[in-house]
Amino acid sequence: MKMHTITLGITNCYLIEARDGYIMVDTGQQRRGKKFLRAIQQLGIQPEDIKLIIITHAHFDHVGSLAAIQGYCQCPVMMHPQEAKLTEGAIVVIPPGTNTLGRMVSWMGEHSKILWRFAAAAVEYPVEHEYDLQSFGVSGKVISTPGHTPGSLSVLLEDGRAIVGDLAMNQFFTQNYPIFAELPEKVYESWQLLIDNGAQQIYPAHGPAFSVDRLKAVLASRK
Ligand SMILES: [Zn+2]
Ligand SMILES: [Zn+2]
After folding, report:
1. Distance between CA atoms of 187 and 147, rounded to whole angstroms?
2. How many angstroms separate the Cα of 184 from the Cα of each of 50, 167, 174, 189?
3. Which residue in 182, 184, 179, 222 sits closest to 204, CA to CA?
4. What is the structure's pLDDT at 121?
5. Which of 19, 34, 62, 100 has the most beta carbons within 10 angstroms of its beta carbon?
6. Which chain residues have CB less than 5 Å from ligand 1, an ion?
7. How many Å apart are CA 149 and CA 167, to the nearest integer?
């Protein structure tokens, strides 16, 4: 299964080749609709080839261009119901930091919320626990992986590739643990869940992909 990465603002968005088109995971920061169109054009993909948009969680850098991209693709959106509430209400949430840098950025974010506003979008597929993507022609599933936010979802492909949103980061001076988390302890539980479900390679929204061994090492050091 082929997978493409397109970067919209600070966020990696992923396009997974499906039986008949593509599934897109996350939609990047606000005002990136045109950049999205240019990026898929370079890949030879038409907007209508995208059959489903999965959102890992409702932070502005993941749903920022959702309304615009959904407008181009005319496809349904999948999200955890808790995150769907935020997206449908266009509610900006700035998560708490887990380290000094995170706390600083979070403080700045709280004081500049107006800058992070995004357009509301409707969610057709609420997923609370798990969803088999076979119906969209992809060997893989969506699973609930709370931690960074309560309603964070990950996409786990059968071959072990795991698109995890912000459950793990590989940027912002961090190599594994996210610099923001609403449920810090749950992050580790969700890593374990991904490992138990066969994750091999982690595809974060921020930074390049890396081996799951890194997460295993962190978990082992906590025992
Ligand atoms: Zn986030
Ligand atoms: Zn993010």
Report:
1. 4
2. 33, 10, 15, 10
3. 179
4. 94
5. 62
6. 59, 166
7. 8
Q: What percent of the chain is helix, strand and coil (3-state, nearest 5)?
A: 35, 25, 40
Q: Right CATH number for 3-221 from 3.40.50.300, 3.40.50.2300, 3.60.15.10, 3.40.1190.20?
A: 3.60.15.10
Q: Average pLDDT by consecutive 10-residue portion of the chain (223 residues)?
A: 95 96 97 97 97 97 97 98 96 91 89 89 97 97 98 98 97 88 96 98 97 97 90
pLDDT at res. 60: 95
CA of 182 from ligand 1 middle (Å) equals: 10
Distance 205 CA to ligand 2 centre (A): 6
**Structure tokens belonging to residue 18:** 């499906």
Give me the pLDDT at residue 223, please: 85
- Please name the residues in contact with 92: beta carbons below 8 A apart, sequence gap of 6 or more: 60, 113, 116, 117, 118
